[in-house]
Structure formats: structure tokens, C-alpha cells
Queue: 2 jobs
Job 1
Amino acid sequence: MSVSPVICIDGPSGAGKGTLSRQLAQGLNWHLLDSGALYRAVGVACQRAGVALEAANEVAAIASVLDVDFRATDEGITVWMAKEDVTADIRSEAGGLCASRVALHPEVRELLLTKQREWACAPGLVADGRDMGTVVFPAAPLKIFLTASAEARAERRFHQLQGTGGNVSLPRLLADIKDRDARDVSRKASPLMPAPDAVLIDSTSLTVEEVVQRVRGLASIRGIASDTTD
Ligand code: C5P
């Protein structure tokens, strides 16, 4: 399907996909697709337009004209919608919950498919999401399914948000994570599941560096990218 190599990183919320994908893309000097940010952008755009997240046709209409742009800054990647920096809204817990509700609609997933595939260009792409290996890039030469226990994921998110001075509760985060997991796994359109040829990595008791090294090693063994430390 795609000529440029793609490494797919799928798995549930908070398993560490974002950090792993960023570090891989940086180390390899490849493009990075944060597909969750696209669903989050649709959710935020719907809320701003006063569209009910359950209204499939109206949500799809918003998704079809979505004007989203990613910009690299010294602080990381910022997300812009129609010339406005919406990074904070998109990254919030509420943004994640909205995303998982708009992601239920097959019409919306279909509309975002082409947008996501356009990211696969030279020298290569690291694609972070839920259905990268199963639906978006089924021919990718390396697919990782990254998991961790719900408790470990909630705790990581808790420390992350505490670091930004946010007012958060661990039980609430755990409940939200379980809520999103249930929606992602049980939806009819592209449910969250490992591709048959995905390599499963449980990051509960691994450091970020250990996970990155493992994936770089696999990429090297498969001849996709050399295993030099950058
Ligand atoms: O990865 P992130 O937490 O940003 O994703 C937010 C939500 O968007 C997920 O909980 C999931 O419902 C949805 N999503 C999806 N397919 C993707 C990426 C994200 O359904 N490829």
C-alpha cells in the first residue's frame, strides 16, 4: 500500500504510545502521525459548533471540513485549528473523552482515513493510534501493540498532570481510562485490538528507554531502520 516504511504504534490510552512514537520518530528522523489528535480535533470542533457528539451526520460534516495543522515548537508539537492554537483544549481529559465519542462513528473514521494515509511519505512514518496496524496501514512492516495495566496508566497520567499544576484525582483518571478503554474496545467500527502480526509489549514495568530500545531493535532486525543511537 504505502511505499515509505511505516511503524505502527497502537494500544489503549496512556500506555506510553505518544512518548514512544515521538522518541522513535525523532531518533529515526521520520514523520510522526498523532492520529488521536485528529479525533480530538473533531471532538473539540463539534463542541465549539454546538454539534451533539452522537449526531453521526453532523459530526461527519465537521470532520469533512476539518482544518487542522500540526506545528513543531521548542515545547513540542502544537495543534492549530483554523489559525487558532487549540493544543490545550485538545490535550485535556475532556478532549480525550470527546474524541472517543466521535471516533465511534464509521463515517468519521472513513473521512479521516485518507488524511492519515497522506502522512506516509519518505523517509518513513511512525503512526500512533488505535487502528494504525489493523485498518490504516495494514501492510506496515512493523506493528507494535503497547499495553500497560489500567492502574499504571492512570498513575502515569496523574503524575503528568500534577507536573503541569492541574487539579486531578487518581480515582477519577482511572475511571475515565476504563471508560475510554471500554468504548474503544467495544465499538463496531475499527475496535481497539492488536493486528494479527503485531508485536505485543507490556510497558507496566518497563522504562521508556527500554521500550524504545526494544522497538528500535525490532526495526533493525526487520531491516526497516538501522539501530544506531542518535
Ligand atoms: O490517542 P488519544 O488518547 O489521543 O486518542 C483519543 C481517542 O481518540 C481515543 O480514546 C480513541 O477513542 C480515539 N482514537 C481512535 N483511533 C485512533 C486514534 C484515536 O479511535 N487511531
Note: Strands lie at 6-10, 31-34, 68-73, 76-81, 84-85, 125-129, 142-147, 199-202.
Job 2
Amino acid sequence: MTVEATKETRGFETEAKQLLHLMIHSLYSNKEIFLRELISNASDAADKLRFEALHNGELYENDPELKITVEFDKEAKTVTISDNGIGMNRDEVIENLGTIAKSGTSQFLSTLSGDQKKDSQLIGQFGVGFYSSFIVAERVEVFSRRAGAPASEGVHWESQGEADYSIESVDKESRGTTVVLHLQAEQEEFADGYRLRSVIKKYSDHISIPVVMLKDEPPAPPAAESEAEGDAEKTEEAPKAPEFESINSATALWTRSRSDVSDEEYKEFYKHISHDFAEPMKWSHNRVEGKLDYTSLLFIPSKAPFDLYNRDTSRGLKLYIQRTYIMDDAEQFLPMYLRFIKGVIDSNDLSLNVSREILQKDPNIDSIRSALTKRVLDTLDKLAKKDGDAYLGFWKEFGEVMKEGPAEDFSNKEKIAGLFRFASTQEATDEQKQSLDGYLERMKDEQEKIFYVVADNYNTAKSSPHLEVFRKKGIEVLLLSDRVDEWLMGHLTEYKGKSFQDVSKGELDLGKLDTEEEKKEQEKVEEEFKDFAERMKESLKDDVAEVRITHRLTDSPACLVIAADDMGAQMRRLMEQAGQAMPETMPTIEINPNHPLLQKMDQEQDEDRFSDLAKVVFDQASLAEGGSLKDPAAYVHRLNKLLLELSS
Ligand code: ADP
């Protein structure tokens, strides 16, 4: 390779620099993964070449046997990984190795804590790929030439990590990419055939093209005494061409039968396709034959990626057609709420010329999509039944995304809802979440509805005054506090024939859960306190639509209730945060006439003081729901006035 006078030195993009630094300092406990990452890139490059060559066979340049070669030099302390894949031109090298093109990178970097252990996990989720070379190398050289380009368009890139890299044009006869790692002094152990072989076996066995190394020369056998008759003729041995051998099994993993693939292999394959460092939680590998013929291998990650909520984050499966790689992120095969699923689909029916546009229109894709969706939901259901704790781990990571399901995927609404987990008054903590099926089982005989309350956080939900009557009667209420919950419940109106009821909305109707005597008693109390309610309404005429005598409260003096078809407080706050002007609606206040404070108010002759008390009761009811006051200073002022009167 001859060097031309086009060498230039460039600084890494700031974000790349930060990431590099972090990686070098966080991933040292698992150094050998650099090889997995580089082989993974080389394999992707081979996939891309094969894909482009579908339209332009010349790209193979008479060298159609795709492979990855790993070599080492103990003296020079180098490890070299070469591929004859698609290669990169100068611009691509700058773009791919000098910057981090991933969306949300700076957002990701800002989530890092400085705690190396935690950060190394996060970096794993982010995926580090090529930069992991610098965990073991003090200097990295990359030689690359794009398939189809003349030898003179080779590129030589070199860097010592940290700050900058140089790039120059060189001649490169062979197409593809060669990465030369100049090992750090402490990492020389990697310049060793045995070590490299075992790392390749461990992490890269599933790579679908051969990963080859020079054959280890067996030690020469001791020269045997020749007992043959006559003179054994001594022949001069011609120097042999170096012989390479394949280290991996080199068949596409998903084409093998399930029983032939070990868990370890599945896990490593997952890491290869997902760029995730953590192991998958579960996978499902299936071959479908019949009208449509395809193989799918779907993985449920154990950790949510940092950019799960980025709109333009990559999602979807890796699409192969008859074992030829076609595209990444084929998002047509799964609905949006399952965007965290990683995997491969290999179809035998689609044309190799397929494009995203064609995929969108192909009715066969719809049926594959619905089959894959069911498969994922069934896999989750099985996991939930078999290992509830592991399933809760899944729910913690992906529950919020799953909650997008009922709105997006009407036909699977009930199946999805069956996978939901909610906090509940049944349990003492937020951690122990309940399924809707569990709720149905515990329902009282006379109970017709599934009750829930929505608040901004678990504690507010749990101490909501609306729950008092339910506690008294021992009726379970689900405690919802995810941002999306109120929106979700708008789409999830019933489950297995039971409708949902927000306990803070509309008039409380416990149906058969109230006895006849209780109903009579309520009517009596309502009659008794009719005047009191009217007096209160007069004081609160600017704040509430109605004052009602309640039977939902046992301990609190009052609570706020919104009309059955009005937007709840959580949704309203969300809309307001999003800059939507919301029409003013007045809540109804429900008061508990058995509460000593209200009984005292009933005796109050001074109308001003009555009005102050009424307003304080109203403001407190807002506070108890986690709401904010329209005029907090007035509340403090009133309360202090009352306190002072009390002590004087
Ligand atoms: P990732 O693989 O997650 O995209 P990397 O940092 O490992 O991130 O690589 C960045 C990009 O560099 C790749 O997406 C690919 O376009 C390019 N690249 C890396 N290695 C190779 C290779 N051996 N051949 C061709 N392109 C490569």
C-alpha cells in the first residue's frame, strides 16, 4: 500500500470523544468483546455486499467467497481482522468512524452518572461497536476500500483513541476492511492463537460466514527411522501456501433447528444483531411453512434501550430473504408497541427486490405481522405464567410501551390487557403488581366493575380519599400512576366482560355492593344535610359545579369528583404541559357530613368564617389529589387566620 500525499488529521466529534473516553474506562472488565464487535461489523459488511451484489454482480470482483480473517503477530503485538465485505470510501470512513450518527447520543451521554459500573451497563445498552477496539489497542489502523472502487481509492485511517485521527488515501488491492489493533502492553495476551480461537468460538460462532485463522502448524513429528526397503528418497518440501481453517460453524443460526442451538449461541446471536451487551430475557425461534414460508427468531431484551421513546429510534427486525440480508429495521413486521423486540425474519416468499414501500403494501406482510405479534404476546404470557418475578422485571422495563398496545392494536386488546400489571390496594408496595386476571379472581361476588384510581405517582394514588369507602368494604382498587395511564384507560374500557370504573369520576355507584339499608341511610343523610350543602355551595360558587353529600369518605372531610365524561386531572395536566389550552371545568365537591370539621362548620354562625372554612376544605381536597392550588397564598393566609382564631 503506497501512501499518497493526502494525509490529514481530524479531531473526533465531541460526542465520539466522550464516548471513547468512557468506554475505555468503563468496559475494561470485559475486554475480549472487542473481537465480537469487530467480527460483527465485518459480518454486517459482508451482508451489505451480498445485498448490493444482487443488482450488481461485479461488486464481487471475482472473489465471491465472503469471509472474515483473524490474524495475529506476537512480535509486533498486533491483532488484525479483515473482511472482504462492502468496505468504505473516504467519506464513509469519516462519517462512520469519526462521528456517532446515532440520534439521541447527547441525551444518552447526559444520563451517564460518572459511576463506572453503572455507566458501563448503559454504554452496553447504547452499543459501542468499533470503538471497543480501544479497550485493548493503543493504536488502531483501518484500511478500507469500497467494493467496485479502483484499488487507488483505498483509505487508511489511524488513531490512538482519545483526541484525533488521521486519514489518507492508499492503494488497496483487496476490497473490504482491515482493522489492525496495536495492542496495549498489558493486552498482549490477545496476540495468541489459542486465546483468539476461544474468544471467537465463544462469541462469534453464529456468524453466518466463515471466520478463518491460519491453521496451527502441528509440531513436526519426530523423524521416524525409516525401515522401508531401499533408500527412502529425501524430497525437498516446497514451501506450502498458508492454510486457513474456519473457526466458527458459519451457518445462519436461525436456519438451524432449535434443538441444535444452545442457549449460549442464542444469546451471542442476540448481542450481534441488537448491539446490546446485556443478555436477552427470552426468545422465540420458529419456522412457519404453508401458505407463507418464513423463519422468525424474536428476542425480548432484558433492558429497555435508552432511546425507547425517541421517535426516530430504530426499530423492527432484520429482514433476510432466502438467507440474503435485505435490510435492518424492517418495522413492518411488528406493531409500534412491540418496537423493543429484536430479531430476524427470513422469508422464502418475498422477492429479493423488495423495498420498504413494497413491504408496506404487501398483504402477506400483514399476516406475518399478526402472526409475529401473537407470537410475542404468547411468549410474554408464558413467561408471566412460568416466572412471575422475571415477568415483573420485563414489565418494569417495557410496561409503559406495552400500554400503547390497546390503542394501536384493537384486535389483540384483551390479550395485551392480560399482560398488564398494576399496583393495587391489595398490596403494600408499588413493587408487587397485580394482573387483571388476579383482580377478577379476587372480586366480590356482587362486584360488577374493575375499580381504579389515577394519580401522578403511587403515593398520591394510594392515599387518595376516593379509596376510603373501598377500604372500608374491602374492595380492591387498582392504583395507576404512569403518565400514560389515563390515556390508556380511555382505550381500555373493559376486560373479560367487566368494565372499568375510575373511582374519582362521576357519582359513585357501587351497585349491589351497597346494601338496601346503606342506601336508605345515605338518602336520609343527604336529606338532613341538604341545607348545609347549599350553604357550602354559596361559599364555593366560583370553584365548584356542585356540592354533594358523599358516602365514599370515612376519614377525609371532602374530595373532588369530576364528571363521568370529563378529562381527568392527570390527562389535563399532560395536555397543559404540552401547551394545549384546556377549557375551564368545575369539579364537584363531595363532602363527608360525619367528619368533625364539617359538623363544626354546621354550627358556625359567622358567615365569613364559614366561607373561609369551606374554601380551606376545598383547597385541601385539591391538594390531597396531588393537584395545585389556583391561589396558594390565599390558602395559607386563610388557614393561618383560622389557626390564630383557634388559639386565641
Ligand atoms: P454500529 O455497528 O453499531 O453501527 P460501529 O461503531 O461499530 O457502530 O460502526 C459504525 C459504522 O461503521 C457501521 O455502521 C458501518 O457502517 C461502518 N463499519 C464498521 N466496520 C465496518 C466494516 N468492517 N466494513 C464496513 N463498514 C464498517
Note: The chain is about 35% helix and 20% strand.
